[in-house]
Specification:
The protein has about 260 residues and is an alpha/beta fold. About 40% of the residues lie in helices and about 15% in strands.
């Protein structure tokens, strides 16, 4: 990390905690402490993190191979981990272009360092809560007059109100060409849910990290308004085009892909 600006290591940071749960190395003691406290209350969070990553792999693979999308916008991308969006996409099409967008300087610097020498991929600085800036950043490397796959994987929970999150999705979709796709996934709030996840989430939201709002499946479905859903629709992520032998019992995260008519 020589030459990089120094991150704030006095408070936990959500992308670094997520990286810790995934077994990555882009985290600090304060992040590991917060992540370990969450694990004490709800040990299943590491598996949920891996489920989210597996959904990303399946969704992006489908978009690249079945929908034949060659441009990807991964907004709120977070820190590098195993099998990032560009690696999945470029296995299917080495000429595909990917733009990652994030606002965190530590994420941007480490992402750019990871991408050194990689063609067709960039990390751009923009704030998801200012969707017009996300579109402007994407337009520097993608042709927004042609279909784009927008990926919002586990990030809308960080938006403090459902109305604002819907506005963000609506604005981003409006800036994309017809025939574009949107892949969404997020943690969900269930009527019958392990009480540990709610306790752990409450503790996480007061730890100093950016809070994460769990929404109901019905609230999550509202993000797809105006889009044509790809089969099997909006489902727990473990049930979206699962691989043979996958455990499909978890309902703690929902995901889906919609196409802009």
């Amino acid at each position: 990390m020589a030459g990089m600006s120094q991150p704030d290591t006095t408070v936990p940071q959500s992308a670094r905690i997520w990286n810790y749960w995934l077994g990555g190395s882009y985290n600090f003691p304060v992040d590991r402490e917060a992540g370990a406290e969450y694990l004490k209350v709800f040990p299943g969070i590491s598996e949920l993190a891996r489920e989210s990553r597996r959904y990303l792999t399946r969704a992006v693979t489908w978009l690249a191979t079945e929908a034949h999308i060659t441009q990807f916008l991964d907004a709120g991308a977070g820190l590098p981990a195993a099998d990032n969006t560009h690696q999945i996409v470029q296995r299917a099409n080495p000429r595909a272009r990917v733009v990652y967008v994030d606002k965190d300087p530590y994420v941007l610097e480490n992402g750019r360092a990871m991408l050194a020498g990689t063609t067709g991929v960039t990390y751009a600085e923009a704030d998801l809560q200012q969707p017009a800036t996300v579109l402007a950043a994407a337009a520097r490397d993608l042709d927004l007059t042609r279909p784009v796959a927008l990926v919002l994987n586990g990030v809308l929970g960080h938006i403090p109100s459902t109305a604002e999150a819907r506005h963000i999705v609506t604005t981003l979709v409006a800036g994309l060409a017809p025939g574009s796709y949107v892949s969404l996934s997020d943690g969900s709030l269930q009527e019958r849910q392990d009480a540990g996840i709610n306790l752990a989430q409450d503790a996480y939201n007061t730890s100093g990290a950016v809070p994460y709002l769990l929404r109901t499946p019905e609230e999550f479905a509202g993000f797809f308004t105006g889009l044509d859903l790809v089969e099997p629709g909006i489902v727990p992520v473990v049930r979206w085009h699962p691989d043979p032998g996958d455990d499909q019992t978890s309902t703690d995260q929902y995901g889906g892909i919609g196409r802009k008519p």
